[in-house]
Amino acid sequence: MTVTPLALTRPASVTDAFLRRLVARVPGSSGATWKLTEVYTGEVLVELPQSTPADIEQAFTTARAAQEQWAATPLKRRLEVFKRAHTLFVDKAPIVTDLIQVESGKNRRMAIEETCDPAMVMSHYLTRAAKLLAPTKRGGPVPFLTTSTEVRQPKGVVGIIAPWNFPFATGISDAIPALMAGNAVVLKPDNKTALSPLYGVEMLEEAGLPKGLFQVVCGEGPDVGPTLIDQANYVMFTGSTATGRVIGEQAGRNLIGCCLELGGKNPMIVLEDAALDEAVQGAIFGAFGNTGQICMHIERIYLPESRYDEFKNAYVAKTEALDVRAAYDFGPDMGSLVSPDHLSRVKSHVDDAVAKGATVLCGGKPRPDLGPAFFEPTILEGVTKDMLCGVTETFGPVVALHKYRTVDEAVALANDTEYGLNASVWGGDVGAARAVASRIESGNVNINDILATAYAAKGTPSGGVKSSGVGARHGDQGLLKYTDVKNVAVLKKQVMGPRGGQTYEKYVEGMLSGLKLMRRLRIR
Ligand code: NAD
Fold first, then answer.
1. Helix, strand, or coil here: 360?
2. Residue 308 belongs to domain spanning
3. What UniProt keywords are attached to this protein's entry (predicted)?
4. How far is ligand 1, taken at its centre, from the CA of residue 150, in Å?
5. Residues 391, 443: one domain?
6. Which atom of ligand 1 is closest in space to residue 246's alpha carbon?
7. Residue at 19 is within a domain
8. pLDDT tens digits for range 92-143
């Protein structure tokens, strides 16, 4: 690993005045603040207001008033806001990248990629929203005499709770289809990473989103969550499985819908005929991209016995050559973890594994010389299910190599987890790789890629199964989930029940033979 001393100048766009302007939209009537820090240096960037329950209620009141007008605005005009926003988001990507980097510590390559996500989501739903939201005529129960129309209505105010690992993508991208559908949004980002989503809201308003429609409240999750969920008509949550259970329980009690995008312990299966150099390169991104803090990243790699050593040697060599350091340019391959607290969690997983007999092939240690939350890209061998990192999500740059003898064994090992968010299968014969993919219990499976192909396919729903979540983002359901269905049915002439003089028996006979006739005519 290259070691370069820390010589860092904060990006020129990140001025104190800019940061103060951004956080000024967060309500905080108690005066309490949270010290939002630059991850690479630990220096305080800005005091982030913390919202009280009363502040959150007020944010919902304001959002609800704005939502009524927004829902009454013709869809075409609503969508025009997002056409303008798309241009702004792309033009201002370097500034967003600066904010993402200072607040999360990720390397610049990942930060700029993150900025693309809301623009991609806008592009997709700009072409799809009008069709999805248009009333759809369905057949009624009696041909010609009845109609039923599916009318989509906004839910009202959607509460979004977002994590720190992709603050701009999860905070803004999930709001876009909700807003297009005519809802207001109240977003609670993670305290650590509130800056980039706040700038996203500012850009949306610059593009013409009505003021008040998109509110941001801040605070620790357990303080803000209960009030937010009590006020919301729907909750979109991205975060850990443990918190997802808490959110899901409260949404259930309130009888509101929720979408929960949770953690993973994602496997990569390398098949015998895989192009090994590509698989190794894929595994570098899979395990160390975003410093191992991607929900869909890889923590377990299953290799055929025959190719284990070949893969291991190439993988370790490439990992040791990674350029890991703090920089606000595109140089480093990997940046920091998000915080010293998270560093302790990652370290505890590695220490626990080593104490229970795992071998560190490379990495394995914090790097305070690089910054307060740096951890080396780490490859382990001999990880078992009695180790923390053998079963639970580490969410850091730590990956374990495993051997398999048969493909059946590889599939069984990949599925031997409570999670089911993402999997990656590598093989020269795509048909055989597809057959393996079909047996993996996971909401996403990428063949000859780690995650980007599935995640960037905005037309296909992406979510987790098992303990990795409920519902999905993207695809038609990624917008329709933010709507209620109203079934508007019309009966043109009253024909139900026996007509004059007809016995009930005769009426029933006619009704039952009518059912058969309609089936034969395939009318229903
Ligand atoms: P977390 O669950 O601790 O926090 C996520 C968000 O929930 C934060 O804003 C936090 O403040 C808030 N929160 C915490 N407790 C809360 C409560 N009781 N009520 C309401 N809100 C509460 O998760 P994290 O550590 O910040 O994020 C990392 C996790 O997110 C990982 O498990 C990762 O896999 C997951 N993730 C999943 C996806 C996905 O799409 N499936 C995407 C990104 C991250």
1. strand
2. 266-460
3. Oxidoreductase
4. 34
5. yes
6. 18
7. no
8. 999 999 999 999 999 999 999 999 999 999 999 999 999 999 999 998 888 8
